[in-house]
Each structure stands twice: as C-alpha cells, then as structure tokens.
Amino acid sequence: MIPELGYFSLTLAMVLSVLLCIFPLWGAHTGNLRLMRAAPSLAIGQFAFVALSFAALIYASLTDDFTVSYVAYHSSSTLPWYYKITSTWGGHEGAILLWLLMQAGWTAVVAMRSKSLPWILRARVLGVLGFLGVGFMMYTLLLSSPFERLLPYFPVEGRDLNPLLQDPGMIIHPPLLYMGYVGLSVAFSFAIAALLTGKLDNTWAKWSRPWTMTAWGFLTLGITIGSWWAYAELGWGGWWFWDPVENASLMPWLVATALLHSLSVTEKRGVFKSWTVLLAIAAFSLSLLGTFIVRSGIIVSVHAFATDPDRGLFILAFLAIVVGGGLALYGLRVSQVKSEGRYKFVSREVALWLNNIFLVVATLIVLLGTLLPMVHKEMGLGSISIGEPFFNKMFAILLVPFAILMGIGPFLRWKQNKWAFLQNKIFVGALVSVVITCAWLFSSYEVVTPLTLLATTLGVWIFIATFIDLYTKAAVHGSLKLGIKRLGLSYWAMVLGHVGLAFVIAGITLTSAYSVERDVSMKPGDSVQLNQYQYRFEGVKTIRGANYSGHAGVVTVLKEDTTIARLYAEKRRYDIGMQFMTEAAIDAGFTRDLYLALGEQLSEGAWSLRIYHKPFVRWMWIGGVLISLAGFVILFDKRYRASPRKDELEGAL
Amino acid sequence: MNRKLMAIVPLLIFIFICVFLYQGLFANPREIQTGRIGQTVPTFNLPDLMQDNKRWTDEQLKGDVYLLNVWGTWCPTCLAELDYLTKLREQGIKIIGLYYVQSYDADFDGPFDMQALRDDVSNMLARAGDPYQFNILDLERSLALDLGVSGAPETFLVDKNGTILLHHTGDINPRVWRAKFAPLMQELQP
Amino acid sequence: MRLFLLTLSLFISLAAFAQQDRYQFDSNEQAIRFEELTKELRCPKCQNQNIADSDAVVAKDLRDRVLALVKDGKSKDEVIDYMIDRYGYFVHYDPPVTPATLILWVLPVLIVIIGFGFIVIRQRKASVKQTWSDADEVMLNKLIKQNKRQEQS
C-alpha cells in the first residue's frame, strides 16, 4: 500500500509541478499577478508530495518490503538500519528520486526566501524551476519508478546493497553532490528569468549570488568527500582517477567557480554580464550532461548506473530542451545586454576575466578528455583511452599561470592600479614563498624534482599572498584587530577559498611526489621497514560483522621502537552475494597517512600486504573542506538575510 | 551583428555535441578495436590440446582461411556459440580453437591436470557440437596476450597468408556473422 | 638529522627489497618504471581500471608481462608500444597524437589565446579617445526616449 501511495504522491507532485511551470510563466508574460502569486504555494506543495514519496521509499526499505523490486535489488534484511535508508539512493531509480527531492526542496526554499524579488522575476524563476521538476518527474513516473512491484513471486531476501557502498561515505556523498548539482539549477533559473525579463543588471547578480555560492559549497564538499571515500574504501590509496563519472562532477564545479567570480564582478561593477549569464546556463547544463553521461550507458565506468537506451534517450531529449532552450534564449536576448564600465588592463576586472578563461579552459580539457574517446570511436577512427597521464599533464601546465594569478588577484583594485603599489607585495610574496618552499622541501626530502618544487611553491605562494593581502587590508584601519573585524564576509570567503586551494595544491603535489609503497608477503612475526616506520605483522584473526565475515590482518606500527599504532586491515566477505571487499587500515595524520591493505593468503601461512606511506594526503581534503566553507560563509552575510518590509513590496511587479 | 553571431556559437556547439551523444546511446562502449588487425599471426609454438607430442606453430596455420576461436569450458557464452560454430563448420568454414585457460597460475597452483581438462573438453564438445579442426592449448595465455585477447569468446578471421583481418569480441551468432564476417569472407573467396 | 635518517631508511628499504617484496627489481628506476607503467596501462576488459588496480585475469597477465619486459631492460616507451601493438591505443591512458586527437591540445591553447585576445582588443577599443559630435547628441536623445518608453511598458 505504502509504495503505491508513494507513487501516487509523486503523481500529485507532478500535477503541482506542471501548474508551477505554467501559471507563473504565463502570469509573468501577461502581467497577471494572481497567477504569479500562485507560484510559492505550488512550490511548497510540490515539495511536500515529493517528500512524502521519498518517505514511502524509505519506509519500504526499513520494513524490508521485498515485494518492491527496488528494495529487493538494493537492500537486504541484514543491513543495519542506517544503510537501509542509504540503500534508498544506492541504485538508479532511488537516486533519481533523491535528485527530485533536492529539486523540489531547493524550489521550495527559493519560493520562501525570494520575497524581496519583484513578482515578475520571482514567478519566472519558480516557473523555470517548475519546468525542471516536471522533466525529472515525468522521467521517474514513466521510465524509472522505484515503486515497481515484484508480485506475485517476490524474494524472501534482498540482493543487498553493494558492499562498496556500505560505508559512511555513501550516506553523505550522493546527497551533498546532488545538493550541488540541483542547487546550480537555481542559478540557471535566475539566468533564464533574467533573460526572459530582459533585465540583466547588478541586482540580478546580487540575488543569484547566495544561491550559487551555497550550491557550489555543497558541490565542493560532495567532491571532497567522494575523493576521501574512494581513498579510504578502495584499498589502493588512490583518490582521483579522472573517471568519466568523477569528471562529470568536476566540470560543473569548475564552471560554477568561474560563475561565482563572474557574479561578483557583475554585482560590483556591472560588467561581464553576458558572460555571467552564459556561465550560469553552462554550470547547470554540465550538471545535466553529467547526469546523462552517468546513466545512459555511453561510457564505461565502475560508477555508472545500469541503464537502458530508452532512459538515456529521455534524459538526452530533456537535456536538449533545457540546455538548447537556454542557449537559444541566450542567443536571442543577450545582444540586448550591454556592459558598461571601463577598466584598465592591470585591474581586478581583467584578473577575474583571466581567471574565468583558465577555469573554462580547464573545463574544456575535462570535457574533451571525457567525450573524445566516444566521438573518436563513433567516427570510425578506432578506440583510444584518455586518462590520468593526459589530464595530469594538462592541469599541471594550466596550474602555473592560474596559481600565479590567484596570488596577485586580491592585490588588485577595481578599474586601475598603480604598478608601484603592487610591485612590493608581489615581489616580497614571491621571495618569501620560494624561500619557505626550498627550505621546507630540501630539508625534508632527498630528491626534489623541478616540477615538485614549482607546484609546491605555487601552493605556498597563494597562501602567503592571501595573508599579505589580509594583513594589508586589515592594517589600513589602524589596529589589526579592528581591521579584521571590519573585513566583510565576502572577503573571508575569498580567504577560505584561496587558502583551501593552496592546501589542495600542496597536498596533491607532495603526496604524488613522495608517496611510497611496498607490496610484501609476510608471515606472523615478520617486520618490514618503510621510511621511518616499522611494520610488524602479528598475524590474522577472523572477524564477524553485522552482515559480513572475514579476516583482519593485525599490524603493529613502530617508529624508532615505540609503538605508535595498531592497524587492522580487513578482508571482508559479505553474507549475501558473497562479494569480497578490502577495508584498508589507515593511521591518519596531518603530515602523513600510513595506509595498509590486506592481500591474499599465500602458501605456508604467509599473507600479502600492501603498505603505503602517503605524506600530506589529508591536506587535499582539509583544503576541500575549507573551500566549501567559503561557499557557506556567505549565508551569514547580513545583506542577504534582511527581510524586506512587507508593505513596501505588496503588489510590486 | 558580430555579437549576435557569437551568441549563437554556444548553441551550435551544444547541438554538435548532442549529435554524438545520441549516436553514443546506440553504440557499445565496451567493444574495443585491438592492435593486430592487418598484421600476421605472431610466432608461437604451443601444444595441441588433445594429443600428446603434437605441437602447432604459426607457419603450419598458413595456407587456408580460418577462424581462430578463443574459448574455454569455464565460459558460458562459448558454450552458447558452439552450436552455430558447428553449423559454420558444416558449411565448410575452417575453425581452429585456441583454448584459453582461465585460472591456472603457475606460481600458485599445483601441476596442471591435463586429463581432467581433456575430459571436460570432450564432454562439452560431445554435447554441444564440435566446430574445431583441432585445439591449441594456451596454458600460460601467452599467444592470447600476443594477439590482444582479454577473455573469451573472441574470434579472429585469418587469411591464407596468416594476416589477421578481423578480431571479434563476444559470441558469434547469425546477426554478427552477417554484419561482420560475411562481407570479409566474400572478398576472400575468389 | 632528518635528512640523514631518511637517506638511511632509503638504503634499508633498498636492501630489504630482496626477500619479502612481491616484485623484485634490479634497480630503483626499474621499480618506478614498473609502477608508472601499471598505472598508465588500461585493463582491456574492466570497467575503467588500470592494470595495477584490477583483479582480472588479463590484468594480471599484462602486469606479469610488463614485469618481465621491465626486468629485461626495456624502456617505458618500448613497453607501451609493445602493448599498443597487441591491444591497440585503447590500452594506454595517454592518447596518441594524431590529426583526430590534436584537438585535445590545440583547442585549449586556442581558447586561452582567444580569451587573452578578447580582453586586449577590448582595452584597445576602450582607450581610444572619444569625440562627441552633434550626430551623437541626436542619437543620445533618441536612445533616452526609447529607454523611457521601454520602462513604461
């Protein structure tokens, strides 16, 4: 009964969604205030029904209702309750329902927090969001319902959630990512609404910004957690593979970063308007493209969902309508948008323009690298593969001018700058960075390659330059303490974002350059050495978890004869489905991770073990979290929180 | 005017991409084209599967057009295609089997149980049909690696001079034969 | 002190190479070459994995072959060419440079150049000193009237 109610609830949501799409947009077109005012309540109603639907699916999972085919394929009674809930988004249909929940959720929040917008704009934004909702709901109801039943012959036990997904990472990674992807649809809707209204001004940018930053914050966090999870889970110590599915999340992130910066320029200076709009359209387009790539079966990836061409076709059609429509509207209307504003070459405007060029080029590299193998093959030219070597090389090259620019950018004022004032800051910053990096690297490591030195220096440079700027801007006020209090939240967002990236760059560089691995076979009592640590294999004990059994290799880690950790590297076999999984043992630290994975049992009581020493690997995720905080910090900005006085805006079109 | 033109560019690029995405929906991303097409069968010297003291080399294979079919008793799809392959044999097509040993690892397993394997093979071929003139045993999968084989079933079409004309991954059925093999076989006849 | 300890540990790990390590090499360069190769070569049968990470039979065979070639003294390029001969370009994660793949490198550079060019040209235009004529005055009034009309509609 409940699953059917879930489906029915979704149908009701769909009806509201259709109305949400039609009424406000028609109302805005004809100036009918009543129609426009229907939008917020429709949005909230839509969310309520989608939420009910989602709750129905969770209920089916929690009660082990294996008559529902989705629950039978992705859950089992042996799962702990929190993984049963997680299994709701463990498969394709449920994940789409999660997406829908986010879509409806963002729409409702926009409806509730857009009271200060003129009705024409507000109605249009909600209308476009409604249209997006309609698309996804049609897809779910017609092609991809998680509520299908397996009657009359249903299994007594489910197939279990893929063991790789039975991890805390699965609980937070998809929801965070989807919050990001879907959140970018808000920026998209604002852009379309602005194009429809013909008003692309500073205020549009101002309204768009908090939504974009929040969505971007979620996306950053989602990607960061994904990388950390892959590292902790997969047993090989890898944290990014340039897999098409990973790329599908990186592309919207890169464009959204460009969008953020562009929005700030448009808001403050009224320039770059047409580019900002294009970026807003592109960001969500890439989210949708990513969804298509991952669910259509056109690429091969461990992450990809199982699919069939029908579903792929629907998503492609939806993609074509949404993105094609958006770009067509852009093509038609953007020539009406004029950016006024003059600025010299050495100005913050130009620096941010260049920043956007680099980010767009980075996105292009990822897009080309992900899609070219498919295009190449379809053109009959044969099969090629594009992976790590290509992407790493290109990004390494791109990083150099980008990082240099990132350090200089904040020093620049809007419109024009006197070189003399800049010179000192840049020179001192560069010198200090080089000195610090050289001292650090050459004292810690035997071999320092030019590339490692350059990349680490760039990370340090961004860090130093940010603090020079911070100091300069705070010191202007006389006392530092007062100055720091006076710095706006926007500024702190920049500091967090840039410092975060500095950590990411340094972390990736150092861990790539100095990670070491040993692949050994050991008998109980054996010891091996890796860098300054000794690893003593104590033996293997059998383990038993909630829904798995297996072995745990026990290893004592010593440094100069003092025990610093005892690690348990597991090899699990899940009861249902009999799948094997390695659960690596990690001794995490700020300056290094010690990573241990158990291999196979060999002859004569020996076991194979992989031991890794990974310096500074945590820095990239610490950096990622800092960057995502930059997105969320903006929510505390008073500018966006002031509630407008009701009487002022009643009836304002 | 210039601006208007430029504003259409993103849309055009998008449409261009969509065309390929559409095509991609109907292609098989897992089918790859390997390296040996157009080259001759690499040098090898491997034992016959069923007979002791009989060995095969690449030179001996020259002289006829044949299909080299990579298979194993552990492979369910191979079992499925035996019927059709046998029909092809009856039509006069020469098929040589390359037996791909899936799980034997010289470092870990004991000495190889040849008799058990031969019994397995005889049983399966007796039940499902025997399309093979003979079978070559690739115990260490060395010829397979030299040919660019990654599993079973895979089939190569080789001409009289030992040149590899086609490398097909997956089973052979009437549809595949018509689409991929028949055209090439036609060219080889006269 | 730290540097000394690290150098010392490097010696120790090299010496300990002998008994317990699964892969034995004649030199550190070989070990590094093997690691790089197994990360750059793709498993022909898997769902996007390199041969280092994959458990598939063919991945293991390729690893063993790469090991043999590396210990035989082959360079990284020679091993990659060896594999491409057999498995095609698909097996290498770095694409070949052909007319078809040239776009991978050309397009990004092009966009950077166009982007730079755009802003430079815009600067040139903006810095051209502007004169104001009567015709401009007429145009200005016309635009003001137009704008007023648009705002009222």
Characterization of this structure:
The complex is a heterotrimer of chains A (653), B (190) and C (153). Chain A is α+β, with helices and mostly antiparallel strands and 653 residues long. Chain A has 20 helices and nine strands. In chain A, a hairpin with a 3-residue loop joins strand 3 and strand 4. The longest helix of chain A has 33 residues. Chain B has 190 residues and is an alpha/beta fold. Helices cover 42% and strands 17% of the residues of chain B. In chain B, strand 1 and strand 2 form a beta hairpin. The longest helix of chain B is centred in the first third of the chain and has 24 residues. By secondary structure, chain C is mainly α. In chain C, helix 2 packs antiparallel against helix 3. The longest helix of chain C is centred in the C-terminal third of the chain and has 25 residues. Chain C is rod-shaped and about 90 Å long. The N terminus of chain C is likely disordered. Classes of the chains: A alpha+beta (653), B alpha/beta (190), C mainly alpha (153). Chain C: Keywords: Cytochrome c-type biogenesis, Heme, Iron, Membrane, Metal-binding, Signal, Transmembrane, Transmembrane helix. Chain C: Possible subunit of a heme lyase. Chain C: This is Cytochrome c-type biogenesis protein. Chain C: Belongs to the CcmH/CycL/Ccl2/NrfF family. Chain C: It comes from Pseudoalteromonas undina.
Order of helices and strands of chain C: HHHHHH
Main beta-sheet annotation of chain B: 5 strands, mixed
- The count of β-strands of chain C is 0
Structural class of chain B: alpha/beta
- What is the arithmetic mean of pLDDT of chain B? 89
CA distance, first residue to last residue of chain C: 79 Å
Function (chain C): Possible subunit of a heme lyase.
Family (chain C): Belongs to the CcmH/CycL/Ccl2/NrfF family.
Keywords (chain C): Cytochrome c-type biogenesis, Heme, Iron, Membrane, Metal-binding, Signal, Transmembrane, Transmembrane helix
Pfam families (chain C): CcmH
